[in-house]
Amino acid sequence: MHYIRFCRPPEVQAGKPHATVKVILAITTDLSDFFLSPRNPIQLVVIGAYTEHKDGKDQLVPVVLTQGNPPSWRAGMRVLKLDLPLPPQPIETIQIRPLDRQLTAMGTGDVLPGKQGLIMAVYADMPRPGDGRAPSVCFRSLRLSAGDAAAAGIAGQPLQIEEDLGESIARHIWDSGIVMVSLLADMCLDDTVSAKESPLPLFRSILQTPSHPLRILELGCGVGVMGIGLARITSLKRGGNAPHILITDLSEAEEKARANMARQAGKLGNSPARLDFEALDWEDGKNGVFGEKARFWPMGSCRFV
User: Fold this and answer.
1) Tell me, what CATH number does 190's domain have?
2) Does residue 2 share a domain with residue 110?
3) CA distance 89 to 68
4) Could you give the number of structural domains in the chain?
5) Both 176 and 281 in a single domain?
6) Which residues pair with 236 in a beta bridge?
7) Is 223 a member of any domain?
């Protein structure tokens, strides 16, 4: 997996006849330790969006900002600088992704097959010209879909997770969380695969047909991709008792994890999962010292073994 990253916040500059947005981006691995070096140049598309009031409700209207002249990322590049004209409408968000849909990780169904490396799009709120403020975060969007779930309209809402701009590993999305959420979506949302055909059949059975309300503990949640994704997935699939999911990490991860929990307000369905964060140092945990919330069935996304 590779990720399009803003090297610094998008900068809007007023001008005549139109304003422009300056963007500096890179495409790297999850830890930003390697740059994407494609065999052939990869064309990118930059899409802005503004709000339009129509039929009694507000809706986002996309606008392609790179129409007719798509920029490209080439082997050996470290940064790509763009200076793009803006339409007269006030652009509220900006999205950058590969022009080729097959190269883009848009949904969990794209990630799980693992047939080729994919690139995750990046989104950010747009600053207003002259307001002196710039966004400090960007966010990723991954549609929760597997098998016939998307076609049936079960998984229509994307999972949005924010991360900090900059190089902090603790506040970035990692491959392990994206892959684990994709596996969980396949287990819970795809009814076309039998338990015998599915990887981890016992685990799949526990998630799909629990004999009691699930209590789940995630160790090392980072920005919260896996635990929050599981809460969204189980709420899409299950009725009745909602699972109780506790995500944990060092205290410095709490602010970003809670911000991403807040992003899910109103998107957890009719049976919302109980979702909470607690600071937990693994060095304390391995010695039996935990926080106030205990006696959970553990499940963690593990990157380092």
Assistant:
1) 3.40.50
2) yes
3) 20
4) 2
5) yes
6) none
7) yes
Q: What gap in Å lies between CA 289 and CA 230, rounded to an integer? A: 26
Domain enclosing residue 244, as ranges: 172-304
Same domain, 188 and 300: yes
> pTM of the predicted model, to two decimals?
0.86
Residues 176 and 297 in one domain: yes
Q: What is the pLDDT of residues 288-299, one digit of tens each?
A: 777 666 444 454
152 domain-assigned: no
pLDDT tens digit string along 211-242?
Answer: 677 888 888 899 999 999 999 888 876 555 67
Cα angle for residues 234, 239, 240 (degrees, 5° grid): 115
